[in-house]
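Batch manifest, entry 17 of 40.
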Amino acid sequence: DLVGGIHETVASLHLDSWKIEMTDIINRISQVLSNTTGGKTPTIQLWMRSVIHRLNHYKAEHKAMLKEAATLLELALWKVNLGDNEGGVVENEGVRTTRGSRKRARKAVCVTSGAGIVVKNVVPFLCLKS
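Output type: structure tokens
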């Protein structure tokens, strides 16, 4: 149902301050309706628009934070896989390593770091419930 879906989405918001604000906005309708004289339909419609508008704002913010977190996770996995040997290039004494070979090795580590698999399997747990 619609109300249960909204409460589930609010519960899955990232920041507690967002959850508190959304809960306050949702609960405010009882007080507003008790103070409303005459037609309550316009008041309910205005309230619904404000709830949906605020929820859409927080969903967009959540998506932006999720994208940033996924990027940081991918970079962290890449860095861990680079290790101490500069992208898999083992430097032997007396053998010159070119910048190009280092760059190719770093790119290879990026591709094979497993970040794509990890991010693909972690991000669904961080997404909002719709």
